[in-house]
Every structure is written in structure tokens, then in C-alpha cells.
Amino acid sequence: MLRIGLTGGIGAGKSTVSAVFSECGGVIVDGDVIAREVVEPGTEGLQRLVEAFGEDILLPDGALNRPALAAKAFRDDDSRARLNGIVHPLVGKRREEIIASVRAHPEKDSVVVEDIPLLVETGMAPTFPLVVVVTAPAETRVARLIKRGMDEADARARIAAQATEEERRAIADVLLDNSGPQGELVEKARDLWYHRVLPLAHNIRTRECGKAIHELTPYKTSWAEDAARIIKRIEMACGTTALRVDHIGSTAVPEMDAKDVIDVQVTVASLDDADVLVKPLTQVGFPRREDVTADTAHTEDPGMWRKRFHCAADPGRPANVHIRVEGWPNQQFALLFTAWLRANPGVREDYLHTKRHAVTTADYVQAKEPWFLDAYHRAWQWADTTGWRA
Ligand code: ADP
User: Fold this and answer.
1) Together in a domain, 102 and 179
2) Domain with 220 in it
3) Which of 171, 287, 385, 390 makes a 20 to 30 Å CA pair with 117?
4) Could you report the per-residue pLDDT of 72-113, keeping only the tens digit for each?
């Protein structure tokens, strides 16, 4: 099962995307909808609200009179806490029930879409393997909200009270631009579902990597942003088992062409600790590749070049996660290598030349090895003379 996060500022078009995902087979978990469900007539929730706030919060037909409840529940902090104390646990329980019912079918590539208006504000974005953000310019959103019947001042106040577009952009693995016609958004959402969300769900279930990359791309400034998101996700999944998580490799070196694959290193205390991370990393979209168990050794003890290796299941953002042991030469060299390249334009040129040749060969990694053997010593010489430390 794959859980994805869907968010967007008010009026951006999140409901449109949610409807498309639902139509495509996604199971939508929408906090607002659930909050209404748990207090429908005949529910335990409504009964408890009546016990707490009195019969006069009901309409003549027995349904909840929301304004009447609001008048009582938002009167003071105690009342508000009492309301939340009743509704929040019921919403949580219902949410878990929905997810459990999907989880009961592990043989399917099921997708649960968690529709969370305040995904930025709650800080939960990194717990999802994929976060989709719907976006539109503020003025467009205001116009749409007015058309929907909202008062202009109210629309502006609500937009101002939410996270900024920039904050939402920072958590987005996918940014769906809804500045054009609605039909365009529907097309984009469908395309995303079939070409990225479903393959991701499949790959997580079968523990496969998303996409192999074979060619070099000119440096992209988005690599640093992508790495930052991946690192947050990994840090949250690994907890204190990860001693540090770093963006390493060529995409961490500004102004250098690279394969469009983000490399991240998770430093752990031992390989046993690395093994504890298999499940949490798979759940956030990084299954382990059992066939990769070591780097090519550049010192005489190959045992000190062992590692664990995970890859991104997401076909839309290739990434490799190398889990290495603190203080081992492979862990140290990964950190040194990026620092050395960043500091030395000449070395960048030199390395790029090697890479350009390597991509034309059958075994890219092997073709770079002779250069790396020499680079290992040159980089440490540089570290000695500059006093560099990990
Ligand atoms: P959200 O759920 O993000 O608050 P909605 O999906 O409800 O936003 O969209 C807000 C309003 O704007 C709705 O009335 C919707 O029908 C309308 N809308 C959404 N996308 C477009 C679009 N691309 N062009 C015109 N109107 C749109």
C-alpha cells in the first residue's frame, strides 16, 4: 500500500485533484469529510456532543446544528478542548479504519490519498513517500473563491492565514500548476496517477527501483531542493539510527553535469543498524537492493568498504541511498569527495571528462574506477593540506 499526501492552499484546486484520484481508484482520506461523518445522526460522536453541549445543538430533524455548536464550543478554551477531545479521536479512529481496510489487501497496488489542507503546518509531509501540491496564483484563487460564494475579505484572510506558496513548494515532490483551465488540471492529475503514483505503488510493493538513468545532464539547481526533501524523509524514517544524512555525489556539486540521480548517504553506527532500516526506508519509498553490498575498495581492507544500498521506487525522482558505517573509509570518502570537487574546479573538469567517457561504456561504475583510485589519494592529500574534516 502507498500513502500519498495531497495539499494546496485554499482555492488552488485540491478538491479537483482529489476527485480525479478517487475516480482513478485511489482511496481518499479527507479530514474534513471524516469530521462530518463522525457526527452524522445516529453516530456515537453526535450522541457525545449532545451529552457535552446539550440538546439545543440539534436541528429539529436531529442533525447537528453547526452554528449552534460553534456558539457553544468556541465560547472558551475549555469548551473548545471538550469539542476537540470528542471529535479528534473519532476522526483518527476512522482514518485508521480506512487505512487498515486497504492494508488488508497487500497483494494490490493500492493507493491511499491523504487530503490534508495543512500539510505544511503539521510538519507531516516527510512521512509520505510522495507529496502532491496543487498551486495557483493568489489572485486566481481569490477570484475562484469569490465565484464559489465566498466574501473577498474572507478569502484573502484565509489565504493569508495559511502557509505561503514557497513553503508549500518546498514540500512538493510534484507541483500541479492550476493556473489554466480546470480540464488541464484534470489531465495533469490523471497523467500523474498513471505514470508516477501507480508505478510507485507497484515498485514499493515489489521492492523495485523506479528508473535507471544512463546519460549526463547539465547541473540543475533543483537537485539541492530535491535532496533536501529526500533527506528530511529519510531522517524522519530512520530516527536516531541515522547519525547523519548527507547529499553526496555529483548532484551535490554545483555547476557539474551529472546523471540525474540524487545520491544520499545515511551514516550509521554499524551494518546491523543499517539492517534495522529496511522496513522504514521501504515505507517512505526506498526499497533495499540486496545485490549491492559494497563499494569498490580503495584501501587494502575490502571489509571496510561494505555498505547497504537502497534506491528510490519513485520513477519521477531517481535517487540512491547509501548506508555506510561511521568512520569507515567509504563513509569518509563520500563526504570528502563532494567537498573536494566543490572546492576544486580543475578536479571537476577532470572528473567530468572521465564521466563523459564512462557513459559511453557498458559498465559506467567500472569505467570510472581507475580515475577514482588515483582520486582517492589526491583527495586525501587535499584534506591533509586544507585541514578538511567530515
Ligand atoms: P480547494 O479544494 O483547493 O480549496 P477547489 O478544488 O474547491 O479548491 O477549487 C476552488 C474553486 O475553483 C472551485 O469552485 C472549483 O470548481 C474552481 N476551480 C478549480 N480549478 C479551476 C480552474 N482551473 N479554473 C477555474 N475554476 C477552477
Assistant:
1) yes
2) 216-386
3) 287
4) 998 899 999 999 999 999 999 999 999 999 999 988 999 999
Answer yes or no: are the C-beta atoms of 316 and 173 closer than 8 Å. yes
Span from the CA of 8 to the centroid of ligand 1 (angstroms): 11
Q: Are residues 182 and 265 in the same domain?
A: no
| High-pLDDT (> 70) share of the chain, % | 100
Going from the Cα of 144 to the center of ligand 1, the distance in angstroms, rounded, reads 6
pLDDT digits (tens, 9 = 90+) for 4-52: 999 999 999 999 999 999 999 999 999 889 989 999 999 999 999 999 9
User: How far is it, in rounded angstroms, from Cα 224 to Cα 226?
Assistant: 6
Angle at alpha carbon of residue 123, lines to 77 and 233, rounded to 5°: 160
Residue 211 CA to residue 213 CA, distance in Å, equals 6
Ligand 1 and 8: CB distance under 6 A: yes
Residue carrying C-alpha cell 543499517: 274
The pTM of this model reads: 0.91
The strand order across the sheet containing 244-248 reads 244-248, 262-268, 319-325, 308-311
